[in-house]
What does this fold into?
Amino acid sequence: MTTANRQLLVKSWPNGLPTPENFEIVESRAPTPGDAQILIRNLWLSIDPYYRHALGPRFVGTKFCHPGDVMMAVTLGQVVESRDPVIPVGSHVTTLLGGMQDYAVVGGRDVRLLPDDLFGPGKLPLSTALGVAGNPGLTAYSALMVHAKASPGETFLVSSAGGCVGATAGQLAKLMGLRAVGIAGSAAKIAWVLEKAGFDACVSYKSNSFKEDLAAACPRGIDINMEHVGGEVLKTILPLMAQNGRIIISGLIDQYNKDVAPPSPNWGVIVSKHLTVSGLRVFNHFDLMPRFERLVADLIAKGAFVYEEDISEGLEAAPGSLARVLTGANFGKSLVRIAEAA
Amino acid sequence: MTTANRQLLVKSWPNGLPTPENFEIVESRAPTPGDAQILIRNLWLSIDPYYRHALGPRFVGTKFCHPGDVMMAVTLGQVVESRDPVIPVGSHVTTLLGGMQDYAVVGGRDVRLLPDDLFGPGKLPLSTALGVAGNPGLTAYSALMVHAKASPGETFLVSSAGGCVGATAGQLAKLMGLRAVGIAGSAAKIAWVLEKAGFDACVSYKSNSFKEDLAAACPRGIDINMEHVGGEVLKTILPLMAQNGRIIISGLIDQYNKDVAPPSPNWGVIVSKHLTVSGLRVFNHFDLMPRFERLVADLIAKGAFVYEEDISEGLEAAPGSLARVLTGANFGKSLVRIAEAA
It folds into this structure.
């Protein structure tokens, strides 16, 4: 193999929000797979807020991308060469280890093999395997199926309701017979959440009357909060939590860009309201993916489920796309397309 | 009824730790029960740290005992007069509404009726119905049976291990096949926790090597932490929590005496370690009491269970006893005896 491999390398760790100057594109040769490995050609990069953790010494422990490293990304790729008998050449896979580059060598065990009968032309678009039918969707599904301990009629609140996780969670909550309330930051997102995704209510965290609006949208309190934001949003939510409420934290975007841990709400509220607060890392729920991806494919085919994608084109667009998800400027699942499917 | 009723009234809200000067004893007449009510003669007062919440404007919402009110207390009493057909005269009850006074009128539905076959001479001492066989014991039991989601061999850590809840929890954990590790504050408590209560390890939070000692006592990390303290103790525990760990908070003694909420640990650790943090209010688990009190009676009769009581005598002793539980100076369940059983 002497195929050229364009890679987005980390050039420097950002001070706050990442900018294009923190990265550089270099060209090398595509690597060769060893035993039990495969070579994939990346078609899509998933852009997720938690990548920010990799770019500098943070207060939450993580693996870092140092200057000179390929920038991390979950990717969707097509298998070009395989030395793992389970992964056929030509098949499509997603992997946490793809990185922001044209080609990657990964272990055959480190990929999710997409079922041909679910993904492809006339079926689910490949890109959805990184979004609504991928890890973000599975995050929402495992929040509701594993963490929420929901009862019919309970109020389910999700922040970032216009994002892929939030919109999926709210729609699943409705299908389970819950009252779905969203928090979003723009009029366009709120309109979409209400009219397309079918939430019962959606309020703006940017409004001066956020606190009152949220209380009015949750007249019997909040039974379940799927939290992605933290900070002032979480502080507003906590007094409205019902007794025996559940808070599922899958991210704290508010603090991803901060160098030191900001003050967190006092843990006393967990006792006084008899709450259960659980952290959700989707990596712990990968066993549910085969069931979930089939469910979503079925729901979308029936027209019972909507999703949005925020697509940028080309490796050069990745740093800007990352900055957008960190500020909430995206609308729907953020993706960068770096090649067309064969 | 013209029986004299000595009552401990709140005189003023304390600034920090309560002192005897914040209370006064007055004598009135014992009240008369109305329909569906009972008159009880209090024999024992339970002294619990959370009473501090009632004595002043705190950052955790609660019901207050204002100056002039009878000071709150969970009590054990004997029924003197009954207008509730379910509660016989002469029976023993515990109630959250007894207060620090000789006599109280409470609703027949607001008491726990002690089974005659479990409590009394030759059986469980009456006082245990406020301790190891009462709400503190039930707190430990529901932590392990409802909240902990324990697997055999996991490491269970409990702070205040020399206290009634902690000692009960550690012993139940051992019976469930867990590794029980305690935190306590004195050499005497640590020796008792290890030698009498049979914990696998116990470390002092007052030691300069607390962090290292705790890490050594939990070589595979902490799977379950039953937390009563918060503050620096919780800060030391969090980095040692295992992935998928569970933290059960039944109290945060460290902050009960503070007027404003102290900084709490950042909630990000809940996500990064995939923790489940649950608040435990024993009032939500009263349905388990009949099963629990019988279990404890059986274990104590078999000699498989130990407990300590920290007994003071007379209503005058109550303020001092409350200050002692707030500073950890007590050893075992704190009780004030204000009358002998008939």
The radius of gyration of chain A is 20 Å.
